[in-house]
Amino acid sequence: MDNRTRNMYLIPYGLWIILFVVVPIVLVGYYSLFDIDGQLSIVNYKRFFSPVYLGMTLRSFWYAFLITVVSLGIAYPCAYWLTKTKHKQLWLLLIVMPSWMNLLLKAYAFIGLLGTYGPVNSFLNVVGVGARQILFTDFSFIFVAVYIFIPFMILPIFGALEELNPSLVDAAYDLGASPWTTFRRVIFPLTISGVQAGCQAVFIPALSLFMITRLIAGNRVITLGTAIEQHFLVTQDWGMGSALAVFLIIAMGLTMWITTGGKRVS
Amino acid sequence: MKKVVQMFVAVFLVAFIFVYVTARINSLQGYSGANTLTIYNWGDYVDPDLITAFEEETGLKVIYQTFESNEAMLTKIAHGGTSFDVVVPSDYAINKMREQGLLLPLDHELIPNLEHIDPRFLNLSFDEGNKYSIPYFWGTLGIIYNSEMLGGKELESWEDLWDDSLRNQIILVDSAREVIGIGLDSLGYSLNDTDPDHLREAHDKLKELIPNVKAIVGDELKMLLANEEAAIGVVWSGDAALIIEENPKLNYVIPAEGSNVWFDNIVIPTTATNIEGAHMFINFVLDPENAAINTEYVGYSTPNRAALEYLPEEIVSDERFYPGPEITDQLELYENLGKRMLAYYNELFLEFKMHRK
């Protein structure tokens, strides 16, 4: 294939990148420079450094961090166990299947499950723990977020574990390493790329979660995503919404950079 | 390369054929510009039987499209490319639409049934002289509560919400003016107050309400209250009627300090292509008998005085949903405070939502 035809094939992808990646980001940056009256100003960025938005940013990071840690804690053992099972493809399918369902439907299902008169509380009553408020708490928020994101954590870790050469593990045992040392010194370092990919896939969207902050957390958890939604849909303050989005983009870029250890993404 | 081009051509061809076929089917069924009427309304906000009756009476074909919020509706109409003939915005949205020049003046001669509207619902601040709009349904903002869950306690005022015994019992609607309005009303300020000190005071007072607030949600509120997820909700009267229909244990009250009164109104936007048909439709739904049928279906309060005679006594005499003038005179309409003030309300509301228990 000569060079010209190859370049022709690049056109659709190039157009896609320009139209749906570059132009929107430039537009977001452009809009962020206008105040609510449509005047050019940096007031939106000043407002971002007020206690309300800084607090919101800190909180967004904290919740996204918790969601990522819990997901990782569940996903790693799960992925490890998956590599040892017989029907890997079936189990993988079962893990991925919930993500085929519409997010809104899942959220509504959780409202029913976790509600005061829902099955979870009925169960707690039966076992004698007694009904308690589950819906609209931090716990329910993190639980549902982890439920939504966990397939994106399991898959890359599973991929990395599958690629791991089992003879390396055998070698570690032969040389007298305990199971814990083997994990810590051999398995985990060799699968770190999967962990990084999984953490990015969870942390970044978790930062800008909105919808479930209202449906599951009853707006008791306010993230930057919620604020952006409000600025665009209710206040019609596109400038402030865009400024928040710019900060999210920067934060996400930093996250990518940190989780890849400051190295260039290969 | 050739294959790529072929594929593109094929996709365009198929798309073109679909567009053509749809247009053809529409025209075969009589859906062509001149004899159709496109209504853009809230979901489930008109009795479908009335639409059928209107089609039979006039020979027009009605296309019914729905929106979920005034903001979404405004954006769609402002961007053009639509041909809505009749739209039903809320009061404050009418203000905005007038400002943006999106409304056509109504020809009152073509709407003789206008005389049936209760005069106290005419000439309102958002459209004096009803040049552009006619009230369609109306209601209030108030408190819905389940006194069984509260051990027989009855609520009467906004102030009652701050009671220590109501820990974690209140569900608020996720809307800035409504929630900040609770603070303003309970302090005796106007719902349209623009004094930053008063608004700050209202916010500080609302902060004290946080321990009693279980959640701040959207439309799910109806389901949550009907399922007794919480004992108290701050809701619009129309939603309250629907919730009570589902769970009769609940009761609705218009708070003593005053509250918001709202109107959804019929207007003809500048996008209209069938202006005559639009007037015919407006006159049709204002007919007392039709308005009564519509009211029974929708469940909101009708501003049509003559229609009340056709409605069951227990609906019309229900002071909760048909408060008399002595109560409605105490209530306030939301005025258009301008983008900047609205942003400030939202900023305070966001701050309110950020407070932890």
Question: Could you provide a short overview of the structure?
Answer:
With 266 residues, chain A is mainly alpha-helical.
Description:
The complex is a heterodimer of chains A (about 270) and B (about 350). Chain A is mainly alpha-helical. Chain A has one domain (about 50-260): MetI-like (MetI-like fold), CATH 1.10.3720. Chain A is about 75% helix and about 0% strand. Chain A is built from 13 helices and no strands. Chain A has helices at about 5-30, 45-50, 50-85, 90-95, 105-115, 120-125, 140-165, 165-175, 180-190, 190-205, 210-215, 225-235, 240-260. In chain A, helix 7 (about 140-165) packs antiparallel against helix 10 and helix 8 packs antiparallel against helix 9. Chain B is of the alpha/beta class. Helix content of chain B is about 40%, strand content about 15%. Chain B has 13 helices and 9 strands. In chain B, the strands form 2 sheets. In chain B, strands 4, 5, 6, 7, 8 and 9 form a 6-stranded mixed sheet that branches. In chain B, strand 1, helix 2 and strand 2 form a beta-alpha-beta unit. The model of chain B has no long low-confidence stretch (mean pLDDT about 90). The interface of A and B includes residues 108 and 236 of A.
